[in-house]
Design brief:
Layout: H1 4-13, H2 25-43, E1 54-56, E2 59-61, E3 77-81, E4 88-91, E5 99-102, H3 109-127, E6 132-141, E7 144-145, E8 149-155, E9 161-166, H4 177-189, E10 193-203, E11 206-216, E12 222-228, H5 241-252, E13 257-266, E14 269-279, E15 285-291, H6 302-313, E16 318-319, E17 323-327, E18 330-334, E19 337-340, E20 346-355
Antiparallel strand pairs: 1-2, 3-4, 4-5, 6-7, 6-8, 6-20, 8-9, 10-11, 10-15, 11-12, 13-14, 14-15, 16-19, 17-18, 18-20, 19-20
Helix pairs in contact: 1-5
Length: about 350
């Protein structure tokens, strides 16, 4: 029997992702897999610990495990193909919530089995810290850091290599929820936080409102967390997992009735919501709206990432002062460029590679 978390993760893997590009990292790794479905709907009825998911070259990889801990064997199973983008979906089996997706290119039975074995081999290499960090990218949007992205090379058996983009910093332990929360609290105290989205949901007349916040930790890693509006009491009425999945399908397919716009101020920021009504198969009424704060953009849409990619390919961008940073014992030279998108958004992107220390 699959757990509730697995059911939700499986649905998320069926959501089409933008094409991979080295510095875009698939739309910041699909906004960290939709902020893990708004942090399990802001810690509502769903359980399971929070861990930053990562989307890698058409592949979601597990979070890194520290090399000094005992090696844990991860067994992967092929779950089937997603109905929207044809991605190949794998899981780590009953009782596990981690899912991985392997892009939509066609694979025969032998190819699927090889990918399954590759995932298991990469998981072991990751735990042993037997991977090579080949590049790091910093991105800022209108002066707001997005969090570092890391690109690794895995040397697989038979001489094959796998290049992946991941959220987790090299050598970073598999943090417990309490440890990660402690780091987030420290980032909050130091002001390394942006509210990038507000989500409104009404189930049979009961309203729930929460914010998606981005925290940049001391090592540069970005973490998305969904936090319920503490000024309002939690709703008594929440959706079950099957209802969640049905609602998400209806919302993605835009099978709702537009109820117009409304404005709300949450934690000192103003949001303009566009509200839609949905009716589930069991008769449950769901109203839903999400909005970004008014003012300058704090992150990029998938369209923005596509435009940024074209500017990079055209050689546009204003070079800025280079800088170095030591990451996991290596010195990386960052070469930032400033790009201005058609809507006026300023993006500074700084790819880097390791350099020899003189």
């Amino acid at each position: 029997m699959k757990t509730e978390n697995e059911a939700l993760e499986r649905y998320l893997q069926h959501i089409a992702s933008p094409d991979y590009e080295a510095t875009g990292h698939q739309g910041r790794l699909r906004a960290e897999l939709l902020a893990r479905v708004e942090r399990r709907q802001a810690s509502g009825v769903m359980r399971g610990h929070w861990k930053t998911p990562v989307l890698v070259l058409g592949l979601l990889a597990l979070a890194a495990a520290a090399a000094e801990v005992a090696v844990q064997v991860h067994k992967y199973y092929f779950e089937g193909r997603g109905p929207i983008d044809g991605t190949y979906v794998f899981s780590t089996g009953p009782g596990e919530s981690a899912m991985v997706g392997d892009g939509g290119k066609e694979r025969d039975a032998a190819g699927i089995e090889q990918k399954r074995k590759d995932l298991e081999e990469m998981a072991l290499l990751r735990q042993q810290n037997a991977r090579q960090l080949v590049s790091v990218t910093d991105t800022m949007v209108n002066g707001h850091p997005q969090g570092r992205m890391f690109t690794y090379k895995y040397q697989l058996s038979g001489g094959r290599t796998e290049i992946t983009g991941e959220c987790d910093a090299p050598g970073e332990s598999d943090l417990s929820p309490a440890q990660e929360q402690q780091q987030i609290e420290e980032a909050r105290r130091q002001g390394r936080k942006d509210v990038i989205k507000a989500t409104y949901r009404e189930v049979d007349g009961e309203v729930d409102l929460f914010l998606t916040c981005r925290y940049v930790l001391a090592n540069g890693r970005g973490v998305l967390r969904a936090e319920r509006d503490h000024d309002a009491a939690p709703p008594a009425k929440v959706l079950t997992i099957p209802q969640q999945i049905e609602f998400m399908r209806l919302e993605r397919q835009k099978q709702g009735t537009n109820l117009g716009r409304f404005e709300a101020t949450v934690r000192g920021q103003t949001f303009t919501f566009e509200k839609y009504a949905y009716r589930l198969s069991d008769g449950t009424a769901v109203a839903y709206a999400e909005a970004k704060p008014q003012g300058q953009k704090l992150d990029l849409t998938e369209g923005d990432w596509a435009e940024l990619g074209k500017l990079r390919q055209a050689g546009a961008g204003e070079p800025l002062a280079e800088y170095t940073a030591e990451i996991n014992g290596q010195t990386f030279l960052f070469k930032p460029k400033k790009y201005v998108l058609s809507g006026g958004t300023e993006v500074v992107q700084a790819p880097s590679q390791p350099v020899a220390v003189k």
